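User: Here's a structure from my thesis project, written as structure tokens. My advisor, Dr. K., wants to see whether a designed sequence matches the one we expressed. Can you design one independently, without my sequence as a hint?
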């Protein structure tokens, strides 16, 4: 299944690209499939989606598997500087700089190789596949919307930390 705005689906100009909206879609899917409890695998942007589900339905979440999802302010390292600039000044210039940065091939490669203990073991086709989707028409605007919305995740970190400790 492809995430709206992230995979092979066409973009929707009237769709609200927020982590809250993504979590509601996943929640509806889980309900439609009659899945009463689940283990969440949260990777990167999936973390904010999963934690929102856990806040709304703590008894349904059996546990978390978390990979590269930030749940504390200290985890917002240098790659998030471009996000922080967007949050402080969401004007056209900053939006353009954000979009240019997060959709660049250099930024995509860093997500694969920065911190990798064995970078030679990372499949070289991953960054190219991601970049192909990042280059789709309309995706820069989607990334700006998600980048700006990410500030709401930071506001939720204390709640998410408590949820994580309770499981």
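Assistant: Designed independently from the structure alone:
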């Amino acid at each position: 299944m492809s995430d709206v705005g992230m995979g092979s689906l066409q973009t929707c100009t009237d769709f609200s690209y927020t982590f809250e909206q993504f979590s509601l879609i996943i929640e509806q899917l889980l309900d439609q499939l009659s899945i009463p409890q689940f283990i969440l695998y949260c990777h990167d942007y999936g973390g904010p989606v999963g934690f929102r589900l856990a806040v709304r339905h703590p008894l349904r979440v059996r546990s978390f598997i978390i990979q590269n999802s930030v749940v504390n302010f200290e985890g917002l390292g240098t790659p998030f500087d471009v996000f922080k600039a967007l949050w402080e000044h969401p004007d056209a210039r900053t939006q353009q700089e954000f979009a240019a940065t997060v959709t660049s091939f250099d930024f995509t490669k860093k997500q694969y190789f920065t911190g990798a203990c064995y970078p030679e073991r990372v499949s070289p086709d991953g960054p190219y596949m991601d970049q192909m989707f990042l280059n789709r028409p309309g995706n820069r605007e989607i990334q700006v919307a998600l980048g700006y919305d990410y500030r709401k995740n930071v506001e939720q970190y204390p709640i998410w930390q408590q949820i994580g400790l309770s499981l």
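When you compare it with your expressed construct, this may help: The domain at 19-166 is CATH 3.40.50.1820 (Rossmann fold).
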